[in-house]
Amino acid sequence: MAVQEIWLVRHGESVANVAAARAEAAGADHIDVDFRDADVPLSPLGVEQSRSLGQELADRGLDDVPVTLWVSPYLRAQQTIAVALDAGGLAEPPKRVDERLRDRELGVLDLLTLHGVRSRYPDEERRRQWLGKYYHRPAGGESWADVMLRLRSVLVDVDRLDGPERLLVVAHDAVVMLTVAVCLDLDEPALMEFARTHAVANASLTRLRRSTAASPWELDEFSAVGHLDDDEVTEHTGRKDDEHVR
Question: If DSSP codes are grouped into helix, strand and coil, which group holds residue 188?
Fold first, then answer.
């Protein structure tokens, strides 16, 4: 049996999400975070969001069919699913930690606010404006097109799975957004329009479905947060793109 559903989860709010919002509000150049990107943990709110997510996964019958779990190697994603499975009373499915599901890398612009990018790297900001969000690759970093390339290889592996009907992926906002783009075959204009009107919230659930391995993917649900209380919903969208909101 081929995988018929992909459930995409963005990690809960991280301490870097909080620091980025604080830096933006203060008009600062730099986001003050004491961890490398891979080691950024959840904030206390992110832990609560993950608990709520776990109950939602249980209520939706995550394991009603054979399921497998693929997760980013980054700590905030690992913590999110560990807390969620425990809170939902769910056994951990067969698990694969996949480096291709890591967050987008921003190179020299990492930990800078948009104001910081403009003041410290004005030439890079002009390149970003000229090339656009889809193709702009900061020095030492990745463009959206680069991330899509690695996600295309992930989806090739999805088609090779034999047994699981449902794949749960726990990763990052860019991974969720661009997995949807690859599955729906969105070109640059269509993706930019979709991203303009949609954001991936922390601890949200996005679902893709197909009837057979040869059928096209369809988007059933995007960034669902009905399981979160109003005061638990945080988007930290990263729409500024080169501000790294983790």
Answer: helix
Strands 67-71 and 95-97: parallel
**At a CB cut-off of 8 Å and minimum separation 6, what does 71 contact?**
77, 78, 81, 95, 96, 97, 98, 101, 169, 170, 171
Strand partners for 218: 209
CA distances from 226 to 121, 132, 223, 232 (A): 40, 33, 9, 10
- 12 and 46 in contact (C-beta within 8 Å)? yes
Which helix H or strand E contains 168, and what residues bound it? strand 166-171
Q: What's the average model confidence in pLDDT over 69-80?
A: 98
pLDDT in tens, 190-232: 999 999 999 999 999 999 999 998 899 999 999 999 999 988 8
Query: Does the domain formed by 5-232 have CATH 3.20.20.80?
Result: no
Q: By C-alpha distance, which of 98, 198, 190 is closest to 150?
A: 98
Residues 218 and 38: their CA atoms lie apart, in Å, by 31
Please enumerate in sequence order all residues whose Cβ is within 8 A of that of 130, keeping only pairs 6 or more positions apart, or say none.
none
Whether 244 has a pLDDT exceeding 50, the answer reads no
